[in-house]
Amino acid sequence: MSSVFTGNNKLTTWLLDQEKGKVDCSSVNGISLASRTRFLSLKYCYSGEEKYHILNKTFSVKNRTCLVLPENEPFDVQTLRNQVSVGICVDIGIHYLNPDFYEDELNRSYSTDFDWCYGMMLKEDGAAPLNKRLIHAIEGFFSNGKNGLDQRMIEIVGYLMLLQQELSNKSSHLRSKTKAAKQIQVLKLEKAKDYIQSSVHESLHLETLSKEVGLSMFHLQRLFKDYHGVTPQQFHEALRMQRAQQYLVTLGASVKEVALLLGYIDPKYFSRRFKLFFGYPPSVLAR
Question: What is the CATH code for 174-287?
Answer without folding.
Answer: 1.10.10.60
